[in-house]
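Supplementary material to the annual report.
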Amino acid sequence: MKTRVIPQQVIARKRDGHPLSEHELEGFLKDYLDGHVGDDQMAAFLMAVYFRGMRDRELDVLVDVMLHSGEVLERGGAGAPRVDKHSTGGVGDKVSLVLAPLAAELGLVVPMMSGRGLGHTGGTLDKLESIPGFRTRISLDRFDRILRDVGCAMIGQTEEIAPLDRRLYALRDVTGTVPSLPLITASIMSKKLAENLDGLVLDVKVGEGAFLSRMEDARALARAMVGVGAARGLAVTAVLTAMDRPLGRMVGNALEVREAVDCLAGGGPGDLREVVTELAAEMSLAGGVVPGLAEGRQRAAEVLAGGGALTRFERLVAAQGGSLQLSDKGYGLPAAPVTRVVAANRAGVIARIDPHALGYGVIPMGGGRTRQDQDVDPRVGFEVRVRVGDGVLRGDPLAVVHGATEDDLFIGARVIHEAVTVADGPEGSPLPQVLERITA
Ligand code: URA
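Predicted assembly:
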């Protein structure tokens, strides 16, 4: 008979900074999967990991147990290189919505498995589900068929794929245990290893809106994920990108889909286009469909400008049961019943737009979760009208709040005044959009 670990002992040993043996950690994780360790005990363990971190061997065990808690995807019939990207999480980060169809148009197969909102960041699944009819829960057979027909598909983690990550992800979201290097590394890499890829590009966010905000922590996270991939035969490139302000102008699920569609149509904000183009170039290089990054960037820009990626997105949406009305201004997405323009209460320069405050600000309006089982309201959010460094006069619009109720508009206006700093002059300079590239 298997001897079970004593959960409170494992938690206490991690709390006190002792290394866990393979038997202890594997036993604790598997007992959680089997229901012998409760969510309360796992939450305490995650908090202990948050404070104590994990040794390399412990991280390896966590990745392997997460990966093997489910299946690894079959490669199916799609013959082109399978390449995906994953972000460590940011505010206004709608990159996946543009990148998956763009990369497919560039000749790659993109089996994208995404998550829901996590902490103060939004999730690709919640964004996709704001498209009327769009289904992120489909069978793996259907997923494979869509990959073959369309070249990309976007789903949530099924019961079959890394279920341990799925459960821990939901628990971390509501227990303040997201910003942990080993937990983020294992969460992302277990899902991506399960996708059976030829290449992976990681968008590692840096700055206040990222989970690990400092440059050195983001670098360490990137190196850890690249290392986990390399040890398991997966070529991983990490690109560090700015998250010291929100990406693009829209924050909130349906609003972000709208901005992503603008970008797919060859428009949208320049910072979003820059990140998308860089990551598409990296994916193209990883898949061997271009000889170098410069060619990759050029091809990506051409495809975006030509509208091919938008057509591919429409096919993806239709294949997953959704519908968009591209001839409509709002693309047929759900719209908030009330909006309010929030104006600057003094003249000056936009010194700072705090992504953290905006990300958390969406939650009380119903756009994010405070408990695991909540639905989100896709309509609410912020449309930020200024960029860092802009000059404004008193009364100039800073942002538009999109709310479900008048109360939301009050909450949202307070968030905007907290998040957007108007000062006499700039306070430091914003980070370059694309900062660094890390490979094995
Ligand atoms: N994205 C994930 O999938 N997991 C994390 O822990 C953070 C970002």
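The chain has 16 helices and 13 strands.
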